[in-house]
């Protein structure tokens, strides 16, 4: 995914020019997001739908940009359902995630969400609520089958016993309960077994296994299902940004796979394939901009302390990587005091928190870095601000700037 840096750089310079203190800000390029989402959707074969998992970033400008370009939203809490319905009353909606409360299930039913059921107990509770409120509940069973095709990534939620999904040994009981309960309508199966998938071919193999497994269950339990949800989990390569997940290759492979599968589906027909991607949709449009407030040399190490830190931008800590960044040199130094700087050496970029864990990037060789220079961290549009512990130390929050999807005329 080639980043168009220019708008983010210009916006960072603008923020800096109008600031009277060191800056930190999130910048979201909605034009880039619109373009990216439209391409993701357009590349997918006809038999597929693309939903956005709003947990990755639920800011309204992003959701508004995505609503007309994608097929629906996935929510994982009552709060997310409420947020989506407040602003997008007609948008197709999924409700998934473990530990759903009765109140949240009620909300999901009232708002016409498809519920991804995580356990037998949840199924029983949904049945009771649907009966009591005289509604039918449209659902998918989230399943967690052991699959040989599950290449491991840095975050695996399935293929082994975990808290996610219906354990495979409970599937027959769930299906039996569904047969007895007319208020519950089984639409299909939901698989979300891993995150951070970077390899298109591995992901295709996994989807092929999902489709095969679904076909077997349909034959074994005499099921007719409408769609399978293949989850999110496509990764962003923070460590080697030039080598991102190859979506066009993946989409071409998927088209071939679906052609083969439709031949084998027989009279039951091929279920539609629904994606609920988070990171891969919104990460690329976001940038975290910050300013160097101190440079320290300690032993043979150098540290650049920036305005902000992991309480704003927790992504590198959460994923255990050094986040890539660009230096935007600031040449007009207007302060009355000396300007510390380093040249041609490795630097660790840290934030303002009183913890050694507040590290954004480690041992990165820079040509030159000075106090007052700006750093721009890309891939900050997903699981960034929204997973950060904003109020630790009560530093002010960064500005949030949304660069419009359409340029003003
Ligand atoms: C059930 C489910 N679907 C979709 C997603 C989105 O995953 P990603 O952002 O990796 O695409 C998640 C993330 O945790 C999830 O738990």
Automatic annotation (TrEMBL):
The lineage of its organism: Bacteria, Pseudomonadati, Pseudomonadota, Gammaproteobacteria, Methylococcales. The keyword Isomerase does not apply. This is Diaminopimelate decarboxylase. Residues 35-283 form the Orn/DAP/Arg decarboxylase 2 N-terminal domain. One of its GO terms (molecular function) is diaminopimelate decarboxylase activity. InterPro entries: Ala_racemase/Decarboxylase_C, De-COase2_N, Orn/DAP/Arg_de-COase, Orn_de-COase, PLP-binding_barrel. GO terms for biological process: lysine biosynthetic process via diaminopimelate; polyamine biosynthetic process. The active site is at 354 (proton donor). The modification N6-(pyridoxal phosphate)lysine is found at residue 55. Its cofactor is pyridoxal 5'-phosphate. Keywords: Pyridoxal phosphate.
